[in-house]
Every structure is written in structure tokens, then in C-alpha cells.
Amino acid sequence: MPRRTLTPEEFEYLKSADLGNRLRLFRREIGKLHTYKAFTTVAISARIGIKHQTIISIERGDSKKPAYQLVYKITQDLGLPFEALTDDFYEGPFRSIAIGEFAGNDDNRMKAGEGVERTSVIGAVLYEYRSDNTVRLIHDLRSYKSLDKQEFISALARLISEFQSTVTVEKLYTQPHPVIVASELYNALAIYPQAYPSIPEDAWIKARNELIATYQPKRENEGR
């Protein structure tokens, strides 16, 4: 699908626009780049499995606080970053974004879509970040079973939520929902493989052990 970037004039308009008007502008402009029929409220709702009246309600401003998951589905269908519909995105000077499909080819988008199933184990490396700007590894753990897409996103969202809960109340209100963050990260694995290379487990373990050995403090009797 053809792509173009957001113009400074559109950015200024969107600054003062509400969620519904932002969504309507993006939907119509993306329709001009492709085929308008493919991006009517009816067409979009059919693809993401909701009633088209739901999108109309958002655009009219009748639905003041639609669910994060719903808005996320719409932005994914439009090929927009979720932040493009938020107030925070329009604070400050002009920021350019691409309007249209995901970057990359259609195969990458299909890999990130609902129709592709993959199972994998989720793991986490826990560390202590200290006041002297040093990092101390604490634990390397992983799930005991393979997870499908929804299970993986759910587990990742819970981890993200735990860390988001430590920010101030003011910042907490501006944080994207953990499910949104987790979904975008999961999809990014397929869309941007260069940014998330697959590292052989043996190489990962070796690198970790070498790092620990390099900075491991020596015992008092060593070297005597």
C-alpha cells in the first residue's frame, strides 16, 4: 500500500482534535492512498470483528473512553502507531509519522497477524540497577511451558504492568496500557527481525557467563 508522511499542517490540526476526529482524519487519508472502500467503517469493523457503529460512535465523540484493546485493533488495521491517537504525541514540535501500512513487506505483516500461530517460552533476566550506575544480575527465569500468542502477550503485559506500577501517579495516567505495549512488542518481533535477532542459546549462556566472570570480585586469598 502507498505510504506518505503526516504533514505539519495536519499535525497542527490534530493537536487540538479529539480522539474521534483524529481517527476520522487518518482513516480517510489512508483510504485516499489505497481504496476508500477498503477503509470505510464497515470494512474495518469486518476485519477486526466489531460492529461498524462502534467506530462511528468513536469518530462522533459519543464514545469518550473506548477500550484500549479496541483502539489498538483499529490502529493496527490502519497501520498507525497507537500513539498517533493520543494527546501526548502532539505535545511539543512537529513529529512526522508514516501513514499507511506497516514498514516492510506484506509477508512480515502476515507474520504479525491473527492468522499466524506460534508457540514459544517466555523468559526474563532480572537485575538490580544500583546507584553507582552498575548492574547486578539476579535471576534468569522462564516459563515452564510454551505459550501461544494470547498467552505470551498476557504474560508479557503482566510483567510490564508490574514495572509501570512503580512510576508516579501523574505518569501512570499517561502510560499506554500494558496489553497495548505487549502486543506491539510481540508483533515487532515479526515485523522488524533485524532489531530482534535470534541468538543461539549456547551463545547467550556463554556471553552471560563471560560477563559475570569478567566482573566477578576476586576472593581475598586469590593471587597469593
- Return the structural class: mainly alpha
- Kindly estimate the percentage of residues that lie in beta strands according to DSSP: 5-15%
By CATH, the architecture of the largest domain is named: Orthogonal Bundle
Number of helices: 10
What is the fourth-level CATH superfamily of the largest domain? lambda repressor-like DNA-binding domains
Write structural notes for this entry.
- It is a single chain.
- The protein has 224 residues and is mostly helical.
- It folds into 2 domains: 4-101, lambda repressor-like DNA-binding domains (434 Repressor (Amino-terminal Domain), Orthogonal Bundle), CATH 1.10.260.40; 123-215, no CATH class.
- The chain is 48% helix and 8% strand.
- The strands form 2 sheets. It has a two-stranded antiparallel ribbon with strand order 1-2. The protein has a two-stranded antiparallel sheet with strand order 3-4.
- The longest helix is centred in the C-terminal third of the chain and has 16 residues, at 149-164.
What's the layout of helices and strands?
Blueprint: E1 4-5, H1 8-16, H2 19-33, H3 41-48, H4 52-60, H5 68-78, E2 98-99, H6 106-112, E3 123-129, E4 135-142, H7 149-164, H8 169-172, H9 178-191, H10 201-215
Antiparallel strand pairs: 1-2, 3-4
